[in-house]
Amino acid sequence: MFTIIICKSYEEVSNKAFALFRDMVKSKPNCVLGLATGSSPLGTYQRLIDDHRINGTSYKDVVTFNLDEYIGLPEDHPESYHTFMKQHFFSQIDIRPENTHLPSTEGDEVKNCEEYEKMLEPYDIDIQLLGIGSDGHIGFNEPGTPFDAPTHVTELDHRTIRDNARFFGNDISKVPTKAITMGSGTIMRKAKKVVLIATGANKADAIYGMIKGDKDVNCPASVLQNHPDVVVIIDREAAGRL
Ligand code: F6R
User: How many other CB atoms are there within 10 angstroms of residue 215's CB atom?
Assistant: First the structure.
């Protein structure tokens, strides 16, 4: 079930997502957060950092699982998602590094997927933050991925590679072509609540497909039509086709 919140700006989207995550951490100090990277969550993370600094909200018992990581970049590469999370969130709060999880892409990739599923096994994700790709992906579950997919190795869609070139000096040839992603099936099974944030007109087709389109693997986010609790926080441009 979707609860749709349409906002005036990226700031308002970030404020609303922040409030949901802060309330979770305050009401359940040992909660499990599902986290995303990319441009959409930056404002949310900044607000959580500010709240930690100003109000002392603590993450010492919080556990996190991220959605995905590029294959082919070392973990300490400036554009890896390991680096992104350290830089934009983990290093600025009091979370224990051993409580943070991202898929490892070093060594045997298939084994790493199995291990990530195993790591997740004892947990439920209390609240899962998602962005959405212009092609409708969640995590890196690209169009065509079965709705029940577990954590897996994925080939990035050409639209994802094009969209993410901005992080690689606009050089498409530098963008990794593969990643490990938590599967759509894993997200559906593990996340008790989903908060999906998106801004900008380039997300309008994907948001429409997710909410009003057919449940179809060509729009991976449409699997969320089967989820009991999805809060969609978007600006007017992303809501343009609703
Ligand atoms: C990132 C992720 C992706 C992004 C999506 C939107 O961990 O899983 O699904 O959420 O590509 O990215 P932005 O927010 O940069 O538009």
Answer: 13
Lookup: tokens for 16: 């609303």
Let me know: does 143 contact 218? Beta carbons within 8 Å: yes
For residues 48 and 78, what is the distance between their CA atoms, to the nearest angstrom? 22
Tens of pLDDT along 8-38?
999 999 999 999 999 999 999 999 999 999 9
Q: What is the pLDDT of residues 98-131, one digit of tens each?
A: 999 999 999 999 999 999 999 999 999 999 999 9
Which tokens in the block code for residue 54? 């100003």
User: Any catalytic annotation for residue 106?
Assistant: no
Q: For residues 199 and 14, what is the distance between their CA atoms, to the nearest angstrom?
A: 10
Structure tokens at 186: 């894993």
Give the Cα separation of 119 and 167 in Å (integer): 29
Nearest CA, atom 9, ligand 1: 139
* CA distances in angstroms from 51 to 15, 55, 100, 228, 229, listed in the order given: 11, 5, 19, 29, 25
Rounded to the nearest whole angstrom, what is the distance from the C-alpha of residue 238 to the centroid of ligand 1? 14
How many angstroms separate the CA atoms of 210 and 178, rounded? 24
